[in-house]
Design brief:
The complex is a heterotrimer of chains A (652), B (309) and C (271). With 309 residues, chain B is mainly α. Chain B has helices spanning 11-44, 51-67, 72-95, 103-125, 142-148, 154-174, 178-188, 190-195, 200-226, 235-246, 251-276, 284-295. Helices cover 71% and strands 0% of the residues of chain B. The longest helix of chain B is centred in the N-terminal third of the chain and has 34 residues, at 11-44. In chain C, strand 4 and strand 5 form a beta hairpin. Chain C is globular, with a radius of gyration of 19 Å. Classes of the chains: A alpha/beta (652), B mainly alpha (309), C alpha/beta (271). The B-C interface holds B 169-170, 172-173, 176-179, 181-182, 184-185, 187-189, 191-199, 206, 303, 306, 308 and C 67, 69, 89-90, 92-94, 98-99, 101, 105-110, 114, 117-119, 121-122, 124, 126, 128, 131-134, 138, 141-142, 165, 167-168, 181-182, 184-185.
């Protein structure tokens, strides 16, 4: 087909197309020193070419890997595009990973060049340099504190750019040819899986695959160059890289980089994105900000808020989804828009949002409902690193809280008899890096990918997610035990940040609960309970009672679902210390690593299952002055109310 | 030109607009008085009870200089100079010795100051009611009346324009500028202000002198309307509701509040006054102020009082 | 665990120079109470100089003498070779001496940004009339100052509180803002009065890093007072030790640490 040959199939070609078609339009904006600074598509392309020239002069080979240790900054994306320009593979890593986590990834990929945001990241790169001999150059963005560094591998971005421009001037055209050499089948990105359920694997994606997914998803939501997105999540997450790089290049919309993660919400309000991606945790944060503000508001404002939110929860989603609503309610909702919803959306920076997705985790119906009630079009999306993200997406007017929507265009979804979700898509990954065996294990001969997720397809094609296939088990009495779904339900409570439940081949289900310090702390304040910190809160009997109530509510919901009713949480304890990605209990995207948690807390789990009222546990305690000692912690184990299965649903 | 002016068909609407415009313009004159309070309050955190006395003193001196034979254009700079001197003397003799005293002490000092200034004024110029001649008539502008049917006094227009200009200049000066920050810095923490090189004494003098000049302008305009007499001292009381509504620290706040007070007072008098047997002009603004104290104690533009636990 | 030793050897961008400030025979009395007795020492350009001593040793008095808040009865101050019998805060500010206060003296009702802008007071030369009429110089200075202040905001990583009134900030951040306000004046000498008092370990480390970065990046001479020995010894080039208003030690941290008078008078008492 003629059209296909003319369509750019690599990211650099898309960049050049954008520079030609809309060179003067903004491509990336960044708030820096209090001012939004704009990089146009022409500047983006121009700078990318120069950086590519400099990188190639520094031995960047086609197919080599460049690691990125940086937050969302224009220079990160220029360097990423330059990497692609030179035919190399971009490997974004989590900025907050410690050196010992990063070293094996660099070794596995044989990374030759590292792009580091600042001194902190450079320090990390330098520390692992001795164990990663393949690394030739470390490019750093911010030069603060770098004056004393004399390592030969180091080069500042500014110097690199200057050198690249000089090379372009001396030898025009040579670098441009390198971009032309790129083919759609070339590897573009290497993402590492989060390792929530298995070993960390490098997932290779091609230019063509990701571009196809980016373009299809953009077309489904009618995204155009006039849209605006916020780049604020870690680029090491495939979702962020697709939103801020892939789809931006595919459609030409501008991305905005906030000044810092602390200023995120003010910056967001200033730019007013139209396209927004947020994991459920960010949405929860936004909701709690609103609730906190309302606690401080005057009585009149609070009364209005309550009244109009009640109305919005009743009719907002229906109006957004175009379903029938009485004219009276419509008018009242319009009034609410003036008084409450409009100002609220403005404060949250959501007033211009046309399309928003939440992905990466299960979202609570209450949180999703909050935004849809306000008229913010938040939809759920399901995808995995290996599937090029977009697998199933809710469509406008077809949002149901309990499903993730029908398969995206171009994607085939089917289920195995064990209910494992299989996906075939043009955006499927090429392979696991240097691991044909693992690749073959998850890819069927006819091109389907085993997601490892269990799910169900409704009659109307909507996909429901259940749990990880490997996690689904049974209690000793044979009742189905699906830890992921129980944990999700528990986490819908604002007071519960993380939960790990254990019950496979046991009599009962027990839970380790990580309380949300901020929310429980606020609760304690209003109930005049004095506390010194997380550990103190978790040790309070009142807090145990609060959580017991929350678990009872969750159990009531579980009881209503015949497939879950048999495995309700009957005992729990509150962890004295928060689960942290730094000790491996969570992934960098804050997903639970249940195996790690189980191994570390084995005595606690045993005590709960044994029915003991308390348990002593040797734990590391961090003191005010930063020193760590081991101390014996005494934890209370509490019971939670369970419910008989809902009678009307017994048929299943 | 006339095409741009609205023409009013119904007499009732015409009358309403006339009352409203009159109210807004006299409101600007309240703002002008209130402005003097805001300046001092911003720089030293004290409610300057003597501001009314300064208005009286200023305009009485101006008239007095004219009576001594000075022409208008000579009397004006001389009086401005005198007010600057009074401001500086006040800073020097009253406020500087009281640095770091609490607000109540300072308030008492300004009450005393008010009596001293009133006494000085009458000692120097006598107690007779004078007329002030500005060459502006308190008569409707015919040009405007012919074309739109609205009768607005020349004096009101001039007062409005003068007040507007002063307000704009002062709000620029005391908003996000070096002078404005200096002013607030001095009020917040004098020692720290000194350490960053903000000249404490100059800032205070600047403020008192400006307050003196503002008092003069307000006094001239009010004097032209109601005669130069002791009652001008009571303007301070008129300024209270304006300050409460606008917030004690905000220059734009007192302008908006002045407009609100002026309009409320005139509209209330004309439209609901008859129901009370008239005379509500005098207390309607205070009712409004009390209402504001309930719903927005910090005023429209005032800073929220921050309480930390 | 990985090796956590420093990755660089420290070569100073601004090598320590000649004395910029000399204090000669300073004595200060409040009524009959002797706060400082015949104290002499110097401060060299680009160095980090600490004044330590137990509570009540006269450290803050010393700082207030340098900054002109207190007028000593005896002694003189020499700044770049020029001798002064007395200093005033205004003169000190004009000479490029900026300071922070032990009990944080920020402009509480103003935002962080306005506090920092106020710190640039002396860098802005436009007069009252120029400002009121917004003449070009006043406008230009306002923009230049904002740019300079934004650089400091980035440097101190306080972007997120730019528009927050300082009274709402927690203690540690207020300390950082106060440092920012002092830096806004682009000082030659920075006087820090117990910059780490009341901070937790993490905040102390942050503050130490900022102080060293300021010294390194702008070449600012730093004079700081602390009673917490630990941190000071790590970041100072030279240390003066005061006790009961008298100087009992002066030298590098190592010299001071091994000085018997200091050990007796200070270390023995405090710990």
């Amino acid at each position: 087909m003629a059209e296909q040959t003319s369509k750019p199939k690599t990211f650099p070609k898309l960049l050049l197309r954008n520079a030609a078609a809309r060179g003067a339009d903004p491509a990336i904006r960044e708030k820096s020193r209090g001012v939004w600074r704009t990089m146009t598509w022409a500047q983006f392309a121009d700078e990318t070419e120069a950086v590519a020239a400099a990188l190639m002069a520094r031995d960047l080979k086609r197919g080599a890997h460049v690691a990125f240790l940086s937050g969302n900054r224009p220079r990160l994306y220029v360097a990423m595009a330059a990497t692609h320009w030179a035919g190399a593979v971009a490997t974004p890593l989590f900025e907050d990973s410690p050196p010992e986590e990063i070293a094996p990834l660099l070794q596995q990929a044989g990374v030759t060049h590292i792009f580091a945001e600042d001194q902190e990241q450079v320090d990390k790169a330098l520390r692992i340099l001795p164990t990663c001999p393949s690394v030739r150059f470390i490019i750093y963005d911010k030069d603060r504190g770098m004056r004393h560094y004399k390592q030969p591998q180091l080069v500042s971005y500014a110097d690199l750019l200057r050198d690249g421009r000089a090379r372009l001037a001396a030898q025009p055209g040579a670098t441009r040819m390198e971009a032309e050499r790129g083919q759609g089948e070339d590897a573009a990105f290497l993402f590492f899986t989060s390792g929530a359920t298995g070993p960390v694997r490098g997932v290779v994606h091609t230019h063509a695959g990701l571009i196809e997914r980016a373009e299809t998803a953009a077309a489904m939501d009618k995204l155009t160059a006039a849209d605006l997105a916020l780049a604020y999540l870690p680029p090491a997450w495939i979702g962020q890289s697709l939103f801020s790089y892939g789809q931006s290049l595919a459609t030409g919309y501008c991305i905005c980089c906030p000044e810092s993660i602390e200023t995120l919400f003010t910056d967001m309000r200033e730019i007013g994105p139209t396209y927004f991606l947020a994991p459920p945790s960010v949405l929860e944060l936004l909701v709690s900000r609103v609730e906190l503000r309302m606690q401080d508001a005057g009585a009149i404002k609070r009364g209005l808020y309550k009244m109009f939110m009640a109305l919005a929860r009743r009719v907002g989603d229906k109006i957004l989804s175009g379903r029938g609503v009485f004219i009276g309610s419509r008018l009242a909702y319009a009034l609410g828009g003036l008084v409450i919803y409009g100002p609220l959306k403005d404060v949250l920076g959501l007033s211009r949002v046309r399309v928003a997705y939440t992905a990466g985790d299960a979202v609570s119906p209450a949180v999703l409902g909050f935004f849809r009630a306000l008229g913010v079009n938040v939809k759920q999306l399901y995808g995995a690193t290996e599937t090029g993200f977009f697998v199933a997406m809710q469509r406008d007017r077809g949002v149901r809280p309990d499903t993730v929507g029908p398969a995206a265009e171009g994607v085939e979804v089917k289920l195995t008899p064990q209910r494992e979700i299989l996906v075939r898509s043009p955006g499927l990954f090429k392979e696991y890096l240097r691991d044909p065996q693992a690749t073959a294990a998850v890819k069927t001969p006819d091109g389907f990918f085993h997601t490892g997720d269990a799910g169900r397809l409704d009659d109307d094609g909507h996909l429901r997610l259940l749990d990880r296939v490997a996690d689904i088990g049974a209690l000793a009495n044979g009742a189905l035990f699906s830890p992921g779904r129980i944990e999700n339900r528990l986490r819908f409570s604002p007071y519960i940040k993380q939960a790990a439940v254990f019950g496979d081949r046991r009599e009962t289900v027990c839970a380790l609960i990580d309380i949300d310090t901020a929310a429980v702390g606020a609760w304690a304040d209003t109930h005049e309970i004095a506390f010194t910190g997380h550990a103190d809160l978790a040790a309070r009997e009142e807090v145990s009672a609060l959580i017991a109530e929350e678990i009872a509510k969750a159990n009531a919901d579980l009881a209503a679902d015949p497939s879950l009713a048999g495995a309700q949480v009957s005992r729990f304890l509150l962890l004295h210390k928060e689960l942290d990605p730094d000790d491996g209990a969570l992934t960098r995207m804050r997903e639970l690593r249940r195996g790690v948690v189980a191994a570390r807390h084995a005595p606690l789990i045993e005590a709960m299952h044994a029915g003991r009222p308390r348990v002593q546990f040797d734990a590391e305690v961090m003191h005010e002055d930063g020193s760590v000692t081991t101390a014996e912690v005494d934890l209370r184990i509490s019971d939670a109310k369970t419910f008989p299965p809902a009678p009307s649903m017994k048929a299943a | 030109m006339a095409a741009f002016l609205p023409s009013f068909e119904t007499p009732a609407l015409l009358f309403f607009v006339e009352v409203l415009v009159g109210g807004l313009l006299s409101g600007l004159m309240y703002s002008l008085v209130a402005l003097g309070f805001v300046l001092i309050y911003k720089a030293s955190g004290v409610f300057n009870f003597a501001q009314g006395a300064m208005v009286f003193f200023a305009v009485l001196s101006f008239v007095g200089f004219q009576e001594l034979g000075l022409p208008f254009w000579a009397a004006l700079p001389v009086t401005i100079g005198l007010m600057i001197l009074v401001g500086m003397a006040t800073e020097r003799m009253v406020l500087r010795p009281l640095v770091n005293q609490n607000e109540n002490t300072l308030l008492m000092a300004t009450i005393g100051l008010a009596f001293v200034i009133e006494g000085l004024a009458q000692l120097a110029w006598g107690v007779d009611v004078r007329r002030i001649e500005l060459g502006i008539k308190d008569e409707p502008i015919m040009w405007l009346a012919d074309r739109t049917g609205i009768f607005v006094s020349q004096l009101d227009i001039v007062a409005g324009v003068v007040a507007g200009v002063m307000v704009i200049v002062l709000s620029i000066l005391f908003s996000a500028t070096k002078a404005g920050r200096g002013l607030r810095a001095v009020a917040d923490d004098p020692a720290a202000a000194l350490s960053v090189g903000i000249p404490l004494k100059q800032i205070w003098m600047l403020v008192w002198a400006t307050a003196g000049v503002v008092a003069l302008v307000a006094g001239m305009l009010w004097g032209a309307r109601s005669g130069v007499q002791f009652a001008l001292v009571l303007l301070a009381l008129k300024a209270m509701p304006v300050l409460i509504i606008g917030g004690f620290t905000s220059v734009p706040g007192v302008i908006v509040a002045g407009l609100i007070v002026g309009a409320t007072e005139k509209l209330a008098e004309v439209y609901i006054g008859p129901a009370f047997g008239g005379g509500i002009e005098g207390w309607a603004p205070y009712m409004l102020a009390v209402f504001f104290l309930f719903i927005r104690p910090e005023g429209l533009f005032g800073e929220k009082i921050i309480r930390r636990v | 665990m990985m090796d956590m030793s420093p990755l660089t050897t420290h070569t100073r961008a601004f090598p320590i120079g000649a004395p910029i400030l000399e204090l000669n025979g300073i004595s200060l009395r409040f009524g009959g109470v002797k706060a400082l007795t015949n104290i002499s020492f110097d401060i060299r350009e680009h160095e980090v100089r600490a004044i330590i001593g137990p509570n009540g040793a006269g450290k803050s008095s010393m700082l207030n003498v340098i900054n002109g808040m207190y007028r000593p009865q005896e002694g003189s101050i020499t700044f770049r070779g020029q001798k002064y019998a007395r200093m005033t805060p205004t003169r000190a500010a004009h000479m490029g001496i900026a300071r922070t206060f032990q009990n944080i003296a920020l402009f509480k009702g103003m935002t962080v940004l306005d506090n920092l802008m106020a710190g640039r007071n002396l860098k802005m030369r436009a007069g009252v009339l120029e400002v009121a009429l917004q003449l070009p110089r006043a406008r230009r200075e306002e923009i230049e100052s904002r740019e300079a202040v934004e650089e400091i905001i980035e440097f101190l990583e306080i972007e997120h509180i730019r528009k927050t009134p300082v009274a709402r900030l927690p203690y540690g951040l207020q300390k950082r803002v106060e440092l920012g306000r002092a830096l806004a004046a682009e000082p030659k000498i920075l006087l820090l009065d117990e910059p780490m008092a009341g901070m937790n370990i993490e905040e102390k480390q942050d503050m130490s890093r900022f102080i060293l970065d300021v010294n390194d990046h702008y070449g600012t001479t730093v004079v700081l007072i602390e009673h917490d020995m630990g941190v000071v010894m790590d970041i100072s080039d030279r240390v003066v030790v005061l006790d009961y208003g008298k100087k009992i030690g002066d030298g590098t941290p190592d010299e001071v640490r091994s000085n018997q008078d200091v050990i007796d008078a200070y270390l023995g008492v405090a710990h």
